[in-house]
Every structure is written in structure tokens, then in C-alpha cells.
Design goal:
Layout (H helix, E strand, L loop, with lengths): L1 H33 L1 H4 L19 E6 L6 E7 L6 E5 L10 H7 L4 E5 L18 H14 L5 E6 L1 H12 L4 E7 L4 H10 L1 H6 L1 H5 L5 H19 L14 H11 L6 H5 L4 H4 L11 E6 L8 H5 L8 E6 L6 H4 L1 H20 L1
Parallel strand pairs: 3-4, 3-5, 5-6, 6-7, 7-8
Antiparallel strand pairs: 1-2, 2-4
């Protein structure tokens, strides 16, 4: 029976992967038919936009991990010695997605916005197996120790939220408080996606990314039109009431992901996910805040409430009705205020 279930699971994974690939191929052929020159047009971006070196965001730093040998890039704001706030970005993002939080929390925290393994200026090992969830979780533990800390306030968004949940589960002694933005507990996600076809469709990229090289190529079509649309379109982007990305913000994303080989590392994160789930351990034992944009085009809001059952400590869920998937960029003032409230609330409870 177990073998049959496993066979059906992998048939679903690769069957849906093939379907997503066919859909993307049809889109590509349609684009070629309409405008072949524009389809394969790409702008060469040699110099980073000025916003990436804005001194108000912090200092660009690097740390090399002894065991893996990988060099990680991060931007740090706030004085050394203050409590550590570690920020983990999602896909397709990098440290810059936390620019509003770097400015906001540096008064009381050493705020570190990381480029995850394979992203931006962080090293990108070539082999797919180097992106298994175990490696990604260990990265955060090793970085924490290399920065001279034994615990932190951990915040993750999207895929970074997945990693944050797993770090909190595997190394609870290292996470004093957990804040996740628009990603449910991993067990909720895996169970929900198999029972709700609507979420399966919204998570099509997880399946499409199982293919070699083709997803990377599709992202480059029409000078990374897909990447632009993720942040700006009506269906997936930041809404009219949100804090829209400027032309320079968009250019920052295009610069990072248009570099040679820059997409393979990020997509490799997804190419191991189905062999690493479901989880053996589930419980989260530290105070947890889950923030959710109700207009998220990729994650159904019902998963947010179900997440509650896996948190065996204080749990707060806040759903923002007009916000998108890109919550910390979409509604930075509200998100920052909610984080401050959560942090101060926990401090007061400890004093009492």
C-alpha cells in the first residue's frame, strides 16, 4: 500500500510537471509567433542600480561557512551586539526585499538580510543535491554561529518562510521568536495541496521547476517579462493600494537575476522539495506570528488558520485584506507595526 501511494505521488508530481511544461511551451510558441525578435531580446545589465548600494540600508558583508566552504552575502544594519534579527527572503527575491525592515528595526536589533544559498552574491554550488532542505536549514544554523550568535529573532517570507519554519522545528533553541510571512507550516502546505486542486494549480511552479534548464530559459523570455509581471501584474503583483515597486526597484531584481547562471541556484531549491517532505517532526515551540496578504495569488488563505494547530506556544495570525503575496514590500508600514507589536507583547509577557 505504501508503494502504491508513493507511486501515485510521484506520478502526480511528474505528470503535473509535464502539463506545466506544455503550457509554458505553448506560451513560448505564441510569443514567437507574435514577435520573434522581442521574445529572445535581453538587455545586458553590467552595473547594479544605485539602490543596491544605498548606505541607509546597511553594510554589505560576507561570511564563509567552515563546513560547507560556501561564502554568504548579507546586508547588515544596526549595531553589533544587539539582538539578532535574521531575515530570509523568498523567490524570486534577494536581500533587497527586506529594505523596509532593514531601515525600521536597526534601532533595536542587529538586522541581517541574507542572500540564501544560490542567490545574488552568495555562492551557488552547481549540483542539485546541494540544495536539499537539510542543507538550507544547516546554512541558517551555521550563519548564526558564524555571526557570533546562538539565537535570533527569525523572519521568513515565501520560500524563506518555509526555511524559517524548518529551522524553528529543527533548532528551537536558536529561535527566540518566529515571524513568517505568507507561508503556512510545511505540513499544512503538503497536506492541503494534495486535497485542494485549486492550491495545486496555484503551486504549479513547484512542479514546473522539476524540469532541468527549461524553467530558467522561460524566465529570460522577453527580457524577464515573467519576473516583472510577478511584482507588477494585476493578478500576482502589488495592488493599487500597496507600496508599488519603483522602476529602480524592478531594475534591481532584473540586474540580480539576469546575471549568468543566476536563476539555476534559486530554482534548484525547489528541485529537491518532493523528496524531503513530509516532515518527521512538526511542532513549533516558540512564540509565532503569521502575517498573510489575503490577495496572495499563490497561497490560499485557509492554510493560515490551519497552521495554528502546529504551534505549541503563543500564536498570532493577522490577515491583511488588501495585501498581496509580497507583503513586506506591499504594506511595509503595517507589517513593521505588527512586528513591533508582537515583539513588545512578548517582552511584556516575559517581564510579567
Amino acid at each position: 500500500m505504501v508503494r502504491v501511494r508513493a507511486l501515485l505521488f510521484w506520478a502526480l508530481v511528474y505528470g503535473y510537471c509535464a502539463l506545466c511544461a506544455c503550457i509554458e511551451l505553448l506560451k513560448l510558441l505564441w510569443s514567437i509567433g507574435r514577435s520573434p525578435g522581442k521574445t529572445f531580446q535581453r538587455v545586458i545589465r553590467e552595473n547594479p542600480p544605485a539602490c543596491l548600494s544605498d548606505p541607509s540600508l546597511g553594510t554589505h558583508c560576507y561570511v564563509r561557512i567552515k563546513d560547507s566552504g560556501l561564502r554568504f552575502h548579507y546586508v547588515a544594519a544596526g549595531e553589533r551586539g544587539k539582538p539578532l534579527m535574521l531575515l530570509l527572503h523568498g523567490f524570486p527575491e534577494f536581500w533587497y526585499s527586506w529594505r523596509h525592515q532593514l531601515r525600521e528595526f536597526k534601532s533595536e536589533y542587529r538586522v541581517v538580510a541574507l542572500d540564501l544559498r544560490g542567490y545574488g552574491e552568495t555562492d551557488a554550488p552547481p549540483q542539485q543535491e546541494n540544495y536539499k532542505l537539510d542543507c538550507l536549514i544547516t546554512d541558517i544554523k551555521d550563519i548564526l554561529e558564524s555571526l557570533g550568535y546562538n539565537k535570533c529573532m527569525l523572519i521568513g517570507h515565501d520560500w524563506g518562510g518555509m526555511i524559517a519554519w524548518l529551522v524553528a522545528i529543527c533548532y528551537p533553541e536558536m529561535v527566540t521568536k518566529l515571524i513568517v510571512i505568507n507561508f503556512p507550516h510545511p505540513s499544512v502546505f503538503t497536506e492541503y495541496i494534495l486535497r485542494h486542486p485549486s492550491q495545486l494549480i496555484k503551486s504549479g511552479n513547484y512542479f514546473f521547476f522539476q524540469m532541468p534548464w527549461f524553467p530558467e530559459f522561460i524566465f529570460t523570455v522577453n527580457d524577464f517579462k515573467i519576473l516583472k509581471n510577478l511584482f507588477t501584474s494585476r493578478t500576482t503583483g502589488i495592488g493599487r493600494k500597496g507600496c508599488r515597486l519603483t522602476a529602480e526597484d524592478i531594475e534591481a531584481y532584473l540586474y540580480i537575476f539576469s546575471q549568468p547562471g543566476a536563476l539555476t541556484g534559486p530554482i534548484n531549491h525547489y528541485r529537491n522539495i518532493f523528496s524531503c517532505l513530509p516532515l518527521q517532526h512538526h511542532e513549533v515551540t516558540m512564540p509565532t506570528l503569521l502575517l498573510w496578504g489575503e490577495r496572495d495569488a499563490f497561497m490560499e488563505v485557509e492554510m493560515a488558520e490551519i497552521t495554528r494547530i502546529y504551534v505549541k506556544n503563543h500564536f498570532r495570525l493577522t490577515i491583511l485584506s488588501e495585501a498581496s503575496h509580497w507583503l513586506q514590500q506591499d504594506q511595509p508600514d503595517i507589517v513593521n507595526k505588527l512586528i513591533w507589536t508582537f515583539l513588545k507583547e512578548e517582552t511584556i509577557k516575559k517581564r510579567e
